[in-house]
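Task card 7
Instruction: Convert sequence to C-alpha cells.
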Amino acid sequence: MSGRRKPIVAVDGPAGAGKSTVSRAVAARLGYLYIDTGAMYRAAALAAERAGLDKSDDKAVEKFCKTLEVGFGPPSTDPAKPAAVLLSEEDVSALIRTPEMSMAASTFSAKQPVRRRLTEIQRRLGASGGVVMEGRDIGTVVFPDAEAKFFLTASLEERARRRQAELAAKGQEIPLAKILEDVAVRDRQDSSREQAPLVQAPDAHLVDSTGLTISEVIDRIVNKVRSLERS
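Output:
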C-alpha cells in the first residue's frame, strides 16, 4: 500500500476478550494510533453522572450529547502507557476504569444520541487511516469499509478470569462468580441492544483467544495487517 493511506484496523468483540490489551500492542507494533472506543463510552457515562443527567429523558440526552467532547492525549509507542482519555480536556483515564462505570457505559451506550455523537467523533479520529480502533461496532457501524477487521473473543469463563486478574492488579478483589455474572449481563446487553448490537461483521477475521497467548493473538493480527500494507 505504498503511497496510499494506511489501513483502518477494526477490532470488535465482547467484554473481557482482551481487545484493549491486544489493540494497544498491535498499534504500538505497527506505529498506528490506538483508539479505545470503550473508554470513550465510559467517559461519556461519567460525564452524564457528573451532570446528573436523567437518562430516561430523551430530549435531555439529546441536548447533553450536542456538547459532549471526548478525545485522547498524544499517542504513545508504549502499549503499557496508552494515550490519556480526555473528557473536555480533563484526563479521566483512572476514573473510568471501574466495574460500575463499565456497566453504566453499557447502558448509556444503547442511547441513539450517544452512539451518534461518539460515532461522529470516532470517524473523525480514524478518517486518515493508520489507526487501530476497538469496540463493539467498529467493523459493522463506525467503519464498515475498514480494510482490516477482526472479531476477538474467548469463552465466558476465560474472559471472567482475565477481568478478575485485571481488577486484582488494581487492588480490586472481586469474587469470580460476581464477575462471571457481570460479564454475562454485559454480553446480553451488548448483543440485544437496539442501537448497533454486538455482532461479528461478515468479513471480519474471527480470533478465539481462549487457547492462545496474548503474543500469539497480537502476531496474527499484525501479520494480517502487514500483508495488507504490502498488497
